[in-house]
Amino acid sequence: MRLHHPLPDRLALDNVEDLVALLEEYPRVVGVLAGHAHTGAAATLAGRPVLVAPGVTSTLSMPWETEEARAVRTRPPGIAFHVLAEDASLTTHFRSVP
């Protein structure tokens, strides 16, 4: 499953049960991939990895770095490279792009 916008955390997602049910209905889905968050992130949902790609034009600051989340263009952009193996295992590599 791919999403352009990042998957919100469980508190922000109004219908998390619907998404969990959808994932359980399709056992061949090995992970949920998203972007648009401008920061790399990893979590799990319904026993599957949820992987958010970093930003390619800016990086979002984290709450412990600044008083409010904001895009920072002075940090290097990043990419996420996903490898789906024949055994359906998913590996993700995160890299900064200088």
- Series of secondary-structure elements, N-terminal to C-terminal: EHEEEEEEE
- The strand order across the widest sheet is 1-2-4-3
General form: flat
User: Which structural class do you get from the secondary structure elements?
Assistant: mainly beta
Compute the number of helices.
Answer: 1
Mean pLDDT across every amino acid position? 81
Low-confidence stretches: none
Radius of gyration, taken over Cα atoms and rounded to an integer in Å: 15 Å
Q: Which sheet architecture does the biggest sheet show?
A: 4 strands, mixed
How many distinct beta strands?
8
Strand % is: 25-35%
Q: What helical percentage do the residues reach?
A: 10-25%
Question: How far is it from the N-terminal to the C-terminal residue, by CA?
Answer: 29 Å
Break the fold down into its secondary structure elements and pairings:
Layout: E1 2-3, H1 16-25, E2 32-34, E3 41-45, E4 48-52, E5 59-60, E6 71-72, E7 78-84, E8 90-96
Parallel strand pairs: 1-2, 2-4
Antiparallel strand pairs: 3-4, 5-6, 7-8
